[in-house]
Amino acid sequence: MRKSRFTDEQIIAILKEQEAGAKTADVCRRHGISQPMQNAFAESFIGRLRDECLNEHLFRSVRHAREIIEAWRIDYNHDRPHTSLAGLTPAEFAKRSNEDEPRAELPYE
Questions:
Q1: Between the CA of residue 60 and those of 29, 35, 51, 64, 65, what are the distances in Å?
Q2: pTM for the whole thing?
Q3: Which end of the chain, N or C, is surrounded by fewer C-beta atoms within 10 Å?
């Protein structure tokens, strides 16, 4: 069985906060616990990356791995429509969102 990163006392304190009416998001943030939906999105993405990219290639070097993963990332963000974004690519969705509500440019694609 995997050992918890929290002591028994910490777990009890977290549960008491929750019972006292603290919002789950606040309790999670204070104790460094990812929120369930954030974790579900991350797990979905990580599974997709593993199944579609990492398991499909035998990398010769770190440089080769970076090249393959970057090509997959570009495909994932710029070429592939996502059903969760109404059939848009993430890049199209971001562009439309910025047109609707302009924000400062992000330092990444």
A1: 40, 37, 19, 6, 7
A2: 0.55
A3: N
pLDDT at 109 over 60: no
Predicted local confidence at residue 64, as pLDDT: 93
Sign of torsion, CA 36 38 44 47? Answer: negative
57-84 core/surface letters (b: 16 or more CB in 10 A; e: else): eeeeeeeeeeebeeebeeebbeeeeeee
Structure-token match 């309790």, residue found: 27
How far are the Cα atoms of 8, 14, 57 from residue 44, in angstroms, in the given order? 30, 27, 20
Element (H, E) at 48: helix 36-52
DSSP 77: I
Backbone phi, then psi, for 61, in 5-degree steps? -160, 170
* 82, β-bridge pairs: 88
